[in-house]
User: What shape does this take?
Amino acid sequence: MEKEDSKKLKQKQRERMQPKMGKMDIDYQVLHDAFFKYQTKPKLTMHGDLYHEGKEFEVKLREMRPGQLSQELKESLGMPEGAPPPWLINMQRYGPPPSYPHLKIPGLNAPIPEGASFGYHPGGWGKPPVDEYGRPVYGDVFGVHRQEPDHYEVEPVDRTKHWGDLEEEEEEEEIGEEELEAGIASVDSLSTTPTGVETPDVIDLRKSQRKEPEKQLYQVLEEREERIGPGTILGTSHTYVLTGAGDKAGAKKVDLLKGQKTDRVDITLRPEELEALDDHALAAKFEEAREEEKLRSQREDFSDMVAEVERKRKRKLQEREGKSKKQKDFKF
Assistant: This one.
């Protein structure tokens, strides 16, 4: 309305002749005030809480304590100051609530406030439950066994000093030169070295390290020239001798390209021959098997294969030479 009154007559006539169509049936000023003037911050969920519908209307039970009535609840129940709660009479009849058996309730198992009295008159605290001997059933409702509060001696606190204050450092007295020389002379007079032993010039305080024997990093092997047998594939003319400390047979030849020992010989022995076999017979058996191995290796002849490969190589070479001649003879 204030905005309408502030408009001039010319603006009102212009809006009447040329109205703005498509506008909402709501005052934009009211809408603006609702969001930017009267809006309050809503209750937000805590970090890690999961929101569900109606969560903002739930009662926060963390702020409530059983048996403690807030001022708003007392006003809602119409309880005057010092009056008991309306459910006290039923509790005196049926007992304390099962969910809170150890809850202290005045008029049931705890003394009533000062100035209050038992009875069923307005503002009275009913009749406490007692047994046939007049003793309270649920607790010390009459306040007979009240414990006096413990009185502890409080230590006096020095309030002149504040926490975090730096302590003043005492200034050290400067020692004169004469006192310093006298102290050095007294220290020199005391000697920890026993009599008759000279003081060493250098004292090594480091622990003595154990000296291990030097290990040999490498060993030069003895090289020998060997003859390549006929028909041997990937043969080598150089072999090396490996010497071992625990090898009783002595030096052995090793073929580095084949990766296997050259003196390996397979011997077949029958069980009945082992009984009458001595060192000389075993050596003869070994030599016989070695000769057979040499003859078997010499029988394999690869000369035909080598000749075939050489024939193919020559044929390819001739074909290449013929093609090169044809390309030279050709003219545009």
